[in-house]
Amino acid sequence: VDSGSITAEIGDDARVTAAALRARAIGQDHVFQRAMASSGGLIAGVGANTSLSILATTLVRIGDGGVHDVGLLDLSSTRTQEFDATSKNLAVGAYAGAGAAMSTELSGTADIQIGASRVNAASITIKANNSADKNLYSATEDTLRSTSAGASSISAIKADTDIGTVTNRFGANVAIKNGAELVVEAAPGAIGLFQIDTYANANITDKVRVDAVGSLAVSIAKADQQAMMRSTISIEGAKVRNLSGTLDFATRSDADLTAGSNVLSVAMYVGANATADAVIDADNSIRVNNAELL
């Protein structure tokens, strides 16, 4: 479980005068798991399980009551998650049972928050990015694989991957709060840049396979994927102005979910079920409420 927080903060009542003011929060996770189990005998039962939760956040914050006169304001909040897991098991016996399970939850965020401060700058760039990749093992081999052989054999496996939840979405967000005043004014004849971008990306693969051989064979395989994502910009009661150019706001999310389920049962009496589900729900919104944009 990773539930840490990385914060870069310019606190309340701060005063900054500089050619450039940069604040960056960067978080990286590289987590890879393997589980294997095997058994043999007159009665054989075996199971292999993996569980992973990444709930970590990165945050860049400008507090309240500050005045900042800079040539460039550059704020960046970034999270990168590379992770995967694989479970395999084998059971051989007159009566054999095998199972494997993998549970993954990833619901961290990359956030930027700007409080009731004033910023005067020649250029402003604000970027929040959050990415997740689960392919190291799963792209080239089975995420879960269970094999059982016997006069009677039962095998059941499930891979469950949640990229965000309904109440805690995975994503990247920028919030400019009540009382904030951000003003870009470049030198005479120059163009001022005012850019806010958010991007959330998930590339996830899960593949499960069950092989069962016996006089009586029952096999169940299931792969469930869910991506509840958010890539948003919120401006609430703030003044946002570019006196030397345009305001450029963009929100984006990409989700590539691959779920596969495969069952092989060889027996006189056979029961088999394989299901694979993938659900994507993305919120890519720009919300402006009681704000002044110029």
Quick recap:
It contains no helices and 16 strands.
Helices and strands in order:
Blueprint: E1 5-10, E2 15-54, E3 57-62, E4 67-106, E5 109-114, E6 118-134, E7 144-149, E8 152-163, E9 170-176, E10 181-184, E11 194-213, E12 216-236, E13 239-242, E14 247-266, E15 269-289, E16 292-293
Parallel strand pairs: 1-3, 2-4, 3-5, 4-6, 4-7, 4-8, 5-9, 6-10, 6-11, 7-11, 8-12, 9-12, 10-13, 11-14, 12-15, 13-16
What does this structure look like?
The structure is a single chain. This protein is mostly beta strands and 294 residues long. The protein is 0% helix and 79% strand. The chain has no helices and 16 strands. It has a 16-stranded parallel beta sheet that branches. The two termini are 44 Å apart.
Radius of gyration over all CA atoms, rounded: 25 Å
What is the overall shape? Answer: elongated
User: Count of helical segments?
Assistant: 0
Beta fraction: over 45%
Output the helix-strand order. EEEEEEEEEEEEEEEE
Helical percentage: under 10%
Largest beta sheet, briefly?
16 strands, parallel
> What's the pLDDT, averaged over the residues?
89
Structural class: mainly beta
Give the total of beta strands. 16
Give unreliable regions as ranges. Answer: none
Q: What labels would you give this structure?
A:
294 residues; mainly beta
